[in-house]
Design goal:
With 178 residues, the protein is mostly helical. The protein has two helices and no strands.
Length: 178
């Protein structure tokens, strides 16, 4: 027979016992009909004390001990649940710390890779710019050489033409050929 069935049968006996004991005490209290009694009836008092003493043990066994047992079990379950919740909170905090540290390390790696890619791109840009600058400078030097050559030819041509023009101008001014 299970513990809960025994307890429910025992609870059913308490009211029956109480009614039986009170039925013995009622005739004693009925004799004091009427006025106010300052001195209690000793037989009634003894009957009530006996009834109290007799009921203390069954009530303790049938009512208080099971209630306290249930309350203790409940307190133990609550304490267990709290300890499990605290453990889960610690585990969650550890997982969060691991997650944050891994995110931080990934960010640092990504930042380092970004910096290296940026440095490589800068170096490539500088190299490309250097090449283009060298080509441009060579083209500028070529153009300057061409301009110098053209300028020298133009000067030579102008000297020859200026001498011819000067002779012609002198001959016209003098009116004779030189």
């Amino acid at each position: 027979m299970s513990e809960s069935r025994r307890a429910s049968r025992a609870y059913a006996l308490v009211p029956k016992l109480s009614v039986a004991l009170l039925s013995f005490a009622l005739p004693l209290s009925a004799s004091a009909a009427g006025g106010l009694e300052l001195v209690p009836d000793t037989t009634m008092l003894l009957a009530l004390i006996v009834l109290f003493v007799v009921l203390v043990f069954p009530v303790n066994e049938l009512l208080f001990k099971p209630i306290f047992k249930v309350l203790d079990e409940r307190e133990q379950r609550i304490a267990g649940t709290r300890s499990r919740a605290e453990q889960l909170e610690r585990d969650a905090q550890e997982a969060l710390n691991r997650y944050e540290s891994s995110v931080q390390s990934v960010r640092e790696e990504a930042e380092q890779e970004r910096r290296s890619l940026l440095e490589a791109a800068r170096n490539e840009a500088l190299a490309a710019t250097g090449e283009v600058r060298g080509e441009v400078e060579r083209e500028i030097d070529n153009a300057r050489e061409q301009i110098r050559g053209s300028l020298d030819r133009a000067r030579a041509t102008l000297r020859g033409q200026s001498q011819d023009l000067a002779r012609e101008a002198a001959s016209r001014v003098l009116g004779r050929a030189l």
